[in-house]
């Protein structure tokens, strides 16, 4: 339901499973032979290096992106910017309240960040065991490119369940 229509969803299911998908050629489905059960982090590490494109959003099935998510996020990419993130999100961890995001652990969710794929590949998703592995990935991106390379897009564009 995105207003921006030029996207591709690469869905990687953690372990064998039966998944019903809409009939949409932009959606590609893969599954691992065995379930890793680590919040999908090992899958992210592997697939981040194998996908092709300009930008990537790493997300889970319990996230809802507003219909203008992609369109709004793409507008944030200006020279020197390697990642954009929405300024606010709703999160189930804090009783469904709207929270302001920031470049700190616990205040940024991987589903609320869009990255330039080449830059993300260069840094790599190295932590596959910690629940906060997405934060460590973003922190590695910040260490490599600087906090000013992350641009905050105004809007509550993500609901995390």
How would you characterize this protein structure?
With 161 residues, the protein is an alpha/beta fold. 22% of the residues lie in helices and 27% in strands. The protein has 4 helices and 8 strands, in the order E-E-H-E-E-H-E-E-E-H-H-E. It has helices spanning 41-50, 69-74, 117-123, 133-145, and strands at 9-13, 27-31, 55-56, 63-65, 83-91, 97-100, 113-116, 150-160. The strands form 2 sheets. Strands 3, 4, 5, 6, 7 and 8 form a 6-stranded mixed β-sheet that branches. It has a two-stranded parallel ribbon with strand order 1-2. Strand 5 (83-91) and strand 6 (97-100) form a beta hairpin. It starts with 8 loop residues before the first strand and ends with a strand. The relative contact order is 0.21. The model has no long low-confidence stretch (mean pLDDT 92).
